[in-house]
Write a structure and sequence with these properties.
Its cofactor is Mg(2+). Its EC number is 4.2.1.68. The protein has a domain of about 260 residues: TIM Barrel (Alpha-Beta Barrel). About 40% of the residues lie in helices and about 15% in strands. The chain has 17 helices and twelve strands. The strands form three sheets. The protein has a five-stranded parallel beta sheet, covered by helices on one side. A four-stranded mixed beta sheet has the order 10-4-12-11, covered by helices on one side. Strands 1-2-3 form a three-stranded antiparallel beta sheet, sandwiched between helices. The two termini are about 40 Å apart. About 55% of the residues are buried. The structure holds 6-deoxy-L-galactonic acid and magnesium ion. Magnesium ion binds next to loops.
Length: about 475
């Protein structure tokens, strides 16, 4: 590339990357019994060999190939496009993916095609931020309110939030932005841990030659959870690292939920904050009934008590459990429209945005703004691979530009697979340290991409 040439996307590579985490049932919960933390991963290559855009969407193993094919269908649209064309109008760039008149039929704005959109849009943000030599959060924090609003697609949400209202929210925070940025650089963003509370049984029964649970795992899987000793040890370790918020998986076996809630409460003390996550296992009334036995342990919230599509069901559960506990959801909320309804229906107390279930950074910006308007704290989801790396940027954007508060807000942290990233997250005294490397922190090490590529990577061949 010569000095005068514009940075232009010239080709892309899509990788199906799977980590066999189900072997130890890390990451498991009442619904996801044997997750293999995986990434449908894209690299945009440019005419500058030193500049690449990386993005991914998180999956649980089988089906990653479906997201990879959807990524291919979208990525091809960006070949031979100069980066400056994409960044001059990020709303339009987002709409290139969400508004394709044929691909739209397999969404719209939901499911595998939307997960793929998340990967592609995030890769473009990564490329832009690397080009600007800034982390993504800083690229956005440095935008004027007008530039911020220009990234957002307001289609289908103007009945809840107009562009003018969004502008007012951002303008009101403009004068104090710099001081919040300094505070974040100094103290980082407070985190909570899920790593002590996975539901997976430690001893694994019945595996085939590739190390997978046979019969899809479920038939031979007992919901007994990590051993009590392991839970105690992990709680103590997390406490020693400075964590004060802990999440426990529930919804497998009630007696074991109660026993583990008691021991976690004992370990974290009355001042520690306990959260519970049911991963959609219950019907509406079942959620209300089951929680009665867990309320004595004073959970801050119950996460994903039922189907993510059931807006009114969440509202019913919230009303029934109020004021004893609150309701959180978001990791499976498919787009800004369902978030809008959850807010309008007063169905949730915490908004758990997921960085690549929705269409990446642009749609997240819309959801942050709506959450602010409805006064709902944003507590991002990060259980999975790469999600901690992504969401640290989003919480910084939320605090510095949008919500302007960290009260009642914590960012999820899980201690898995960070070693595979070039710029892994750093946790200090129970907080995320603000990332300073250029990009979206999602660049995976080449060796890891090759080793864990499915089905031909070294790890899958030798297992
Ligand atoms: C399969 C995954 O690990 C989920 O259990 C995880 O995302 C979880 O719901 C969470 O809140 O972190
Ligand atoms: Mg969850």
């Amino acid at each position: 590339m010569t000095q005068q040439q514009e940075v232009t996307i010239v080709r892309y590579e899509v990788c199906d990357i799977r980590f066999p985490t189900s072997k130890h049932l890390d990451g498991s919960d009442a619904m996801n019994k044997d997750p293999d933390y995986s990434a449908a991963y894209i690299i945009f290559y440019t005419n500058d060999p030193t500049l690449e855009g990386h993005g991914m969407t998180f999956t649980c193993g089988r089906g990653t190939e479906v997201c990879c094919s959807a990524i291919e269908a979208l990525a091809v649209k960006f070949i031979n496009t100069p980066l400056s064309t994409l960044t001059a109008d990020m709303r339009k760039t987002h709409q290139i993916c969400t508004g394709d008149s044929q691909l739209r039929w397999i969404g719209p704005e939901k499911g595998a095609i939307h997960l793929a959109t998340g990967a592609v849009i995030n890769a473009i943000w990564d490329l832009w931020a690397k080009h600007e030599k800034k982390p993504v959060w800083k690229l956005i924090v440095d935008m004027t309110p007008e530039e911020f609003v220009a990234c957002v697609d307001f289609k289908y949400i103007t009945d809840a939030l107009t562009p003018q209202e969004a502008l007012e929210i951002l303008k009101a925070n403009q004068a104090t932005k710099a001081q919040r940025e300094v505070e974040m650089r100094e103290n980082g963003y407070p985190a909570y841990t899920t790593s002590a509370g996975w539901l997976g049984k430690e001893t694994v029964i019945d595996r085939d030659k590739s190390g997978r649970l046979t019969h899809h795992g479920s038939l031979f899987f007992m919901h007994t959870g990590y051993s009590d000793d392991k839970v105690r040890r992990l709680c103590r370790e997390a406490k020693a690292q400075g964590f004060t918020y802990f999440k426990q998986k529930v919804g497998g076996d009630k007696a074991s939920d109660i026993r583990r809630a008691a021991l976690i409460r004992e370990e974290i003390g009355a001042d520690g904050v306990l959260m519970m996550d049911a991963n959609q296992i219950w019907d509406v009334q079942e959620a209300i009934d089951w929680m009665q036995d867990l309320l004595p342990f004073k959970p801050l919230f119950i996460e994903e008590p039922t189907s993510p599509d059931d807006v009114l069901g969440h509202a019913t559960i919230r009303q029934a459990l109020h004021p004893h506990t609150k309701v959180a959801t978001g990791e499976h909320i498919q787009n800004r429209i369902i978030f809008k309804q959850l807010f309008q229906a007063k169905a949730i107390d915490y908004c758990q945005i997921d960085s690549c279930r929705v269409a990446g950074v642009n749609e997240i910006m819309a959801i942050l703004l709506m959450a602010k308007k409805f006064d709902i704290p944003v507590v991002p989801h990060a259980g999975g691979v790469g999600l901690c790396e992504y969401v640290q940027h989003l919480s910084l954007i939320d605090y510095i530009c949008v919500s302007a508060t960290i009260e009642d807000r914590v960012l999820e942290y899980v201690d898995h697979l960070h070693e595979h990233f070039e710029y892994p997250v750093v946790i200090k005294h129970g907080s995320y340290v603000a990332p300073l490397d250029p990009g979206y922190s999602i660049t995976m090490k080449r060796q890891s991409i090759d080793d864990y590529s499915f089905p031909n990577g070294r790890i899958h061949k030798t297992n």
